[in-house]
Amino acid sequence: MDSIASHALPKETTSDVGERRATVAVLPVGSYEQHGRFMPLATDTLVACAIVDRIAAAYPVQPLPPLTFSCSQEHAQWPGTVSITASTLTAVIRDIAHSLRRSGVTGLVLVNGHGGNYVLRNVVQEATADGHRMALFPTGADWEEATAEAGVETPARSDMHAGELETSILLHTRPEAVREGYETADWLCDDRRHLHSLGLGPYTESGVVGRPSLASARKGEDVLAALAGSFEAHLRVLGEL
What we know:
alpha/beta; 4 strands
């Protein structure tokens, strides 16, 4: 995991950041949870970091190292999963935003790679209601447009976890992190109405919900390119462009 983890740490110095004079930071928020037998526990973190890498290459923003532990309680029964509470995640993000404002970075975009981080919507809503500049990216619409442009075949409802989308992004950005077996790991279960009460276990034995067999590096590259393009609208909302 050393080579995977190093990908998630910005190599900038304080001089680099100072010269850029960015007033918006982008914070990858991932998770550390099971992703079946073929994807790493840090999958959501690597996805969020891949998006931030594309954003930072295209826009004058300050990339931050990721928050790897988040709200993964629905995966608690699987070995390796580590979670924190929603209140802890909220407090950490608020502290980060407050610290950034001290140094003149008044805007913060939360780049979320884990669907279970529902609380991030409330964090952004509360921050903006208090007069702070904060946004959540990608939104559902951003993902929908990006996957359509990339030709991802599995609908978002069906491609919940370790499926076509996530596997494609890692095949493009970190292919060495994807182990053999994803080609035969498809599992669909669209009716998950009791997920929040029961966790994911009753809906999948392997931990996969989606069709990773359809994944490709080309789809992953196209998804990231589309997301980088849609990020511009979020900067406009924050008053940056």
